[in-house]
């Protein structure tokens, strides 16, 4: 397998039907747990999707920091003989963050305050993670059966990109 | 790893500035942040030590806008350059789509350039990636040094894959945008080509590697604690007047300290700062790594908490 093929196969691609299923799970989770918002972030720091009170949050930076902090704790876990820590909790004065590893590629990031408790959040987060893993497994199984979908980024993606770069970096 | 989200109509790519310590990686990112149009850039977040040396990473999102209907975004990262921080460099390299290698032009730093380049190759191998196939460019920074090595000489020793190179004086901004623009184009081209089932990028002729210098000694902080600061975030628009920020997270037993010290080199960073002092002695192995990662984790968490509270007006 060439390195291009390997990269293509390992690339993270999310389709509309997958995201809408994920959004439903996150909305249901927020309703049950009372958390403020839920973000699904991939381990490289890219935001996949979000639900809840997200308007005031800097998504890009939070996603990068969450991924970095998880990566740091993974190394710590290895030093202690664990594969990774599947859940992390950070307590603030008003807001708290719960991180849960979903499958092998994404992190469920939950922001909550004193409207709920960490126990409620963890209880429903575990349920949500199981459902999300099912979606990822189903998506992977579908890809294996049907083969990877041809990614159509749109006509002239490459040429349009050059024009945008010229405008941005003038 | 490029993330393509058809639901949100987004393409997300990760670019990392790599290179030896103090070569100008963070300076490059600061220049990009200063000069990029407001509507295209996000905040610049830095997790660094009291001495303004990158401890974990600097991060800045750059939005190219809609390309063929897809919102195309770059996440720009820098890594800590010191040999000591190899473990954290590896973490930041995860999922990288393109690398800008920032090399020193100082003849005394040539060995560090080569060591860092080889370190990049090794770290990528751990992720199953081959630098020869990954879009990357080399920037020869600090060309204003009076004793700067000729470009041909650095090229001969360092550019083993014949990739595009750029001369730069990052502290004045010279060469920064051309470097990033070329690499961004290469990354987008690689997405485009691989989706069309295309082959590799432009062929590069490998050059024989010439090593004519001893490896640099490992840097071990002797008795000096690792002081970490909560990430500094530069917002959009004019820099706000420095204010005494309310301290957020603190390691057990230590009081947080708010700092407004200007950056070394005379160029102050924008935005409020909160410093979290963690003066833990650091060793090279086992327990030392554990302490170092705890410090990094505290800094990252403090950053997230600070952002959340800042944006909610607390």
Report on the structure:
- The complex is a heterodimer of chains A (170) and B (314).
- Chain A is an alpha+beta fold and 170 residues long.
- Chain A has helices at 3-10, 16-33, 59-79, 118-146, 157-168, and strands spanning 12-14, 37-42, 47-52, 87-91, 96-102, 106-112.
- Chain A has five helices and six strands.
- Chain A has a five-stranded antiparallel β-sheet with strand order 3-2-6-5-4, with helices on both faces.
- In chain A, strand 2 (37-42) and strand 3 (47-52) form a beta hairpin.
- Chain B is an alpha/beta fold.
- In chain B, strands 1, 2, 3, 4, 5, 6, 7, 8 and 9 form a nine-stranded mixed β-sheet that branches.
- Chain B is globular, with a radius of gyration of 20 Å.
- Chain B has two domains: 3-195, 3-Layer(aba) Sandwich (Rossmann fold), CATH 3.40.50.300; 232-311, no CATH class.
- Chains A and B meet through helix 1, strand 1, helix 2, helix 3 and helix 5 of A and strand 1, strand 2, strand 4, strand 5 and helix 2 of B.
- Strand 1 of chain A pairs parallel with strand 1 (3-5) of chain B, so a sheet runs across the interface.
Short description:
By secondary structure, chain A is α+β, with helices and mostly antiparallel strands.
Architecture blueprint of SSEs:
The complex is a heterodimer of chains A (170) and B (314).
Chain A (H helix, E strand, L loop, with lengths): L2 H8 L1 E3 L1 H18 L3 E6 L4 E6 L6 H21 L7 E5 L4 E7 L3 E7 L5 H29 L10 H12 L2
Antiparallel strand pairs in A: 2-3, 2-6, 4-5, 5-6
Helix pairs in contact in A: 2-4
Chain B lengths: L2 E3 L4 E9 L6 H11 L8 E5 L5 E14 L2 E9 L7 H8 L4 E6 L6 H17 L9 E5 L10 H8 L6 E3 L8 H20 L36 E3 L52 H25 L3
Parallel strand pairs in B: 2-5, 2-6, 6-7, 7-8
Antiparallel strand pairs in B: 1-2, 3-4, 3-9, 4-5
